[in-house]
Write a structure and sequence with these properties.
alpha+beta; Cathepsin D, subunit A, domain 1; 2 domains; 31% strand; aspartic-type endopeptidase activity; Aspartic_peptidase_A1; hydrolase; signal; aspartyl protease
């Protein structure tokens, strides 16, 4: 997450919009998790191309991140490649849809009737927004509120507030400075507020959430589930975060699975675990502290180990290298130095099918194979091997997808370049949600472990 401060004029205009409301259980929570559709009219090739390009944009953002200003919840899949949850904020509750994102920590929603979204697939007038004036519990975060530093971790917000510089800081009535958040595709900006979060089995007062006044390419709010202090799990005091992503094939479905925020310490059954690694601590790169790093030790294709230089697998002193799990990325990203040997392993082992360069250029995915005329197709198994001995054998549908009229299949992973210098900053491997379909995954936040098992999600 990256942030900056608005010009004074924009800041004052935001204050005028928000002025009407400015003022000086241990059981698991389960929330439905579903897909979120932003452009249902795209044809199949457009969707693949879009998902590949968005996955790359997301990877570039994660790899270049700079500093910036048990509950069960239904989790739904969407054709744009992500998953969403619905949360109720305010008194009385106003229900809003949020994209579930383990790669960031801030929670925000489109806010006020003046909300504007540029370059969105739908008009701003058709985007549901939170209306603070309709809630009796909404309050703007003040400069003296400790949660202001959650929004602006790299600076002292008080230094931005003239009233808070006087000897008698108790007279400070200024609000916390506005935020701007940059994502791989798009951005958003607004003010931090504290509001009541209404979950199925509990109410959470004074929950920090962003009241965004404008966005670019962000037609819905984002619920950050990362490791930062402002994330939804951390604000709820959850000890575990788990979910099972229902299968999505570039379309929207009414099916949903459950996202579980658990405050208990009960052990889950039949999971393979690998440690959640300590995040790299690098000056001016606080965003690295939000990611879930895991120790990927090797990749095998058809049982054969892929030769990967070790420096890709472990973060160095600059925070470059290593592997993260990111629900906001669709197709898994591999640095070019990893992708090429993985791709070559498939090309060398897949026999009897010709490469289809036309589809590769069209979709941005490779390798793609022409399988027309074949009733069955046998492909090498892809397996990720993690620190501690955990092995993730992916279902075939999680790493190869049928393209067109069932005559072409493509590897659903992306890389940063075809030629030129490699983008070497940040994580080398970003495990995306497409590869996690029909896997139950658990982030054991208390014991710092990442667990998984194959499971039909429903």
């Amino acid at each position: 997450m990256a942030s900056a401060f608005f010009p004074l004029l924009l800041f004052l205009s935001i204050l005028s919009l928000l002025f009407p409301f400015i003022s000086s259980s241990n059981s698991p929570t389960t929330i439905p998790l579903s897909l979120f559709n932003t452009n249902p009219n795209q044809d199949f090739y457009q969707k693949l191309t879009h998902l590949a390009s968005v996955s790359l944009a997301r990877a570039h953002h994660i790899k270049n991140s700079q500093d910036s200003s048990v509950s069960k919840i239904p989790l739904y899949p969407h054709s744009y490649g992500g998953y969403s949850i619905t949360l109720g904020f305010g008194t009385p509750p106003q229900k809003m849809s949020f994209i579930m994102d383990t790669g960031s920590s801030f929670v925000w929603f489109p806010c006020t009737k003046k909300y504007q979204c540029s370059k969105c697939p739908v008009s701003s007038q058709n985007i549901p927004t939170f209306v603070p004036k309709l809630s009796t519990s909404a309050k703007v975060v003040g400069c003296l509120n400790p949660k202001c530093s959650w929004i602006h971790p790299k600076t002292n917000p008080k230094s931005r507030c003239q009233d808070c510089q006087s000897p008698n800081t108790s007279n400070c009535k200024q609000v916390c400075p506005p935020y701007i958040i940059l994502y791989g595709a798009g951005s958003t900006g607004g003010l931090g507020i504290v509001e009541t979060l209404n979950l199925p089995n509990k109410k959470i007062p004074n929950f920090l959430v962003g009241c965004s006044l404008f966005s670019s390419q962000q037609p819905a709010g984002i619920a950050g589930f990362g490791r930062g202090i402002s994330s939804l799990p951390n604000q709820l005091g959850a000890k575990k975060l788990s979910y099972c992503l229902v299968s999505h094939r570039f379309d929207d479905t009414s099916k949903s699975s459950m996202l579980v925020l658990d405050s208990s310490n009960e052990k889950s059954a039949n999971l393979s675990y690998t440690p959640l690694l300590k995040n790299p601590v690098v000056a001016r790169r606080n965003a690295l502290l939000e990611y879930y790093y895991v120790g990927l030790r090797k990749i095998t294709v058809g049982g054969q180990k892929v030769k990967i230089p070790y420096h890709y697998l472990t973060p160095n002193s600059k925070g470059d290298g290593g592997t993260i799990v990111d629900s906001g990325t669709t197709f898994t990203f591999l640095n070019h130095g990893i992708f090429e040997p993985v791709m070559s392993a498939f090309v060398n082992q897949v026999k009897g099918f010709s490469r289809t360069e036309k589809i590769e250029k069209l979709t941005g995915l490779r390798p793609c194979f022409n399988v027309s005329g074949h009733k069955t197709v046998s492909l090498p198994e892809l397996k990720f091997h993690f620190k501690g001995g955990a092995e993730m054998a992916l279902p075939l549908a999680n790493y190869f997808s049928i393209v067109g009229e069932k005559d072409v299949i493509c590897l659903t992973m992306v890389t940063d370049r075809d030629s030129g210098s490699e983008l070497s900053t940040g994580p080398s491997i970003i495990l995306g949600n497409f590869q996690m379909q029909n896997l139950f995954v658990e982030f054991d936040l208390k014991n710092e472990k990442f667990g998984f098992r194959q499971q039909v999600c429903k």
